[in-house]
Amino acid sequence: MGRWRWHSRLLGSLLLVSSAAGGPLDAQSPGADSSAERLVGAMLGTTPLTSDLETLTDHFGGRPTGSAANQQAFEWAAARFQEAGVTVRREPFRMPGLWLERSARATVQGEGVRFSPRVAALPFSTPTPKGGLTAPLVDAGLGADADFARLGTTARGGIVLVETEELQDLDGLFREYNEAAGIERRAIAAGAAGLVYMSSRPNDLLARHNASLGLGNRHPMMMMERDGAARTLRLIRRGSPLNLTMVLDIQSGPAYQTFNVIGEIPGASRPDEVVLIGAHLDSWDLGTGALDNGANAMMVLDIARQIRRLGLAPARTIRFALWNGEEQNLNGSYGYTLAHDAELDRHVMASSYDIGTGRITGYYTGGRPALIPVLARALAPVAGLGPFTQEDVPIVGTDNYDFMMQGVANLVANQESANYGPNYHARSDEFGRADLRQLRLNAAIAAAVTWGFATLDLSLPRQTAAQVDSLVRSTDLGDQMKSFNVYESWKKGERGLKP
Known about the structure:
Elements: E1 16-18, H1 34-44, H2 49-60, H3 68-83, E2 87-95, E3 98-110, E4 113-115, E5 119-121, E6 133-139, H4 145-151, E7 159-162, H5 170-189, E8 194-198, E9 221-224, H6 226-237, E10 243-253, E11 256-265, E12 270-280, H7 290-310, E13 316-323, H8 331-339, E14 347-352, E15 360-364, H9 371-378, E16 389-391, H10 401-405, E17 410-415, H11 420-423, H12 436-455, H13 465-474, H14 477-483, H15 487-491
Parallel strand pairs: 6-7, 7-8, 8-9, 12-13, 12-14, 14-17
Antiparallel strand pairs: 1-16, 2-11, 3-4, 3-10, 5-9, 6-10, 11-13, 15-17
């Protein structure tokens, strides 16, 4: 998952709808049809879902866009669609630049003190000179306004070290992302030569945490293992002056072309209308990207496989998107909206799955209340896996974003935290962390929703530029866009509907 906003504090402003009261899965649920029941049953049975996820993670490993592993994994996924009898194509799009870490290391040193904690470069960090960058370490506390005011001119030319709280859940993860842009802005304004975050992950795990300015960043930034950073801060706070040498070897380059994988099952009676279900297949590379987002990508593949295996014929065309470039600012789905601009009026709905294997509790409906009754009907065949609660707010940070800004009705699965937060972008994001039983239950829910939107009678016209503009200004959507460094491109008319 890239970065998006958690709305637990906004429950008072949400439109909440419970789709079911729980209980056993009921094949006779109101609104269910025999095709939906067959598809749900297939998803709950024995399929290649688990083995595909194991192959993706263990064989190909982490899949940062621009890497050899990324290219190989996407070619393999396209072949898996073909083997399932699903029409598939590789759709090219433009990545604005290349960023990969080759290596990262650091040394903390002072009078009688020298040690080398483990570190990882923040994505979009600049490299250091070949011999490294050495500068005084500066205790920036939690990186708040008051912390930098306390430092005054002390931070100028130094490397600021920012303390973090240990990450426990999704709330903590999204708070961390929301605060990062401000921390980095303050560090740059203070004249810091570089920035280091204490890792918020337990057990000295390292993680990738995107520099908030993306490719516009011009400073070396990295994450330091939690215990090593705590030791460093204790020394500084006891009055020991310390220097840090950071050595970051980064592979970077200009814009280049890569591709998404798009599977398609044509509609029987309304083939020009499109229902899209997507999940990003790219990942960061410290772990193998099982929770973020291999599990959901393989779920999308398996839903296509089972629809084809059962010989089901949707009324509308269903497209199955394995997005690329998501972790580096949602580039694959953005590229799709550019390439398919002429047919976006006929996109009935675009859905995104991107929060690991926690239980699906409902959907974010993006400030589109007309989606809620349709969802209730689509979820009827899986009522016993509920209850489901829809939250009618817009969110930014995964592959629904550009569809939302293009006025297309969009859904994002809302999921329980489970173990997603502490393993997010971390070395621990491995196959063994995936809840395979819940993944299968989620697959049944996602299949029911996809099938429902592909077959039910509904009218969800595309919003106008004025309606999208109103959504930005009447909700916190604009603030989210600023946090994720996509507001200016929308304001300039470069991304989304032109105001």
